[in-house]
Amino acid sequence: MAIEVLLVDDHEVVRRGLRELLTDEPDIEVVAEASSADEALAVAMHVEPDVAVVDVRLGETETDGVTLCRELRTRPNPPQCLVLTAFDDEEAMIGAIMAGASGYLLKQVRGQDVVNAVREVAAGRSLLDPLTTARLLGKMRHPTEPDLLAELSERERSVLELIGQGMSNREIAERLFLAEKTVKNYVTSLLGKLGMQRRTQAAAWVARHDAARGD
């Protein structure tokens, strides 16, 4: 039997292009179209497509494609959802996955990629846009270091910079015209804010931070 598809996009020209693309395939049949989430939910009450190809942004309506996928997946005989969008949005991809979507593709892909994606999700497999997925995985594996310097006062930053240069408390006191005891208090405070226990840790952190900035 042919894979029955519901197209959901607020642009008629996009739906027409997808219909022409998919109906050229002998094993795929477009059984319905919708220009909004509400229309798609109404249509889904009368037809039970195997796959819903859904855009993330659906015009001015409050319900977006991700929410629509979640609603469709709660139906008794839910379609597999394939999100097809022009927006390279990592949050949207995560939201779509959490909503139960089986696929996430950018509209920049080739037509044959869309056809293949429909077949993949119809067969119960998952398919995600490779570039968006790779970038997202990269961020998850190498999370951005929080801006610890934002926690420090201007004077503490100055002390930290000099610690990074290998100066002792006495040398820092002479450079900044402070009492050595005052410098010691600054060092204790900044180490606490940075979650460190020894000044050698702070010196190493400064070196890594400067290297990352290319200093």
UniProtKB/TrEMBL annotation:
InterPro entries membership: CheY-like_superfamily, NreC/VraR/RcsB-like_REC, Sig_transdc_resp-reg_C-effctor, Sig_transdc_resp-reg_receiver, Tscrpt_reg_LuxR_C, WalR-like
Any one GO molecular function term: DNA binding
Pfam families: GerE (PF00196), Response_reg (PF00072)
Keyword Transcription regulation attributed: yes
Keywords: DNA-binding, Phosphoprotein, Transcription, Transcription regulation
Entry-linked CDD domains: LuxR_C_like, REC_NarL-like
Stretches assigned to the HTH luxR-type domain: 145-210
Domain Response regulatory intervals: 4-122
UniProt record, GO biological process: phosphorelay signal transduction system; regulation of DNA-templated transcription
Modified residues (4-aspartylphosphate): 55
PROSITE patterns tied to this protein: HTH_LUXR_1, HTH_LUXR_2, RESPONSE_REGULATORY
PANTHER family reported for this sequence: TRANSCRIPTIONAL REGULATORY PROTEIN NARL-RELATED (PTHR43214:SF24), TWO-COMPONENT RESPONSE REGULATOR (PTHR43214)
Protein's UniProt name: Response regulator transcription factor
Provenance organism: Prauserella cavernicola
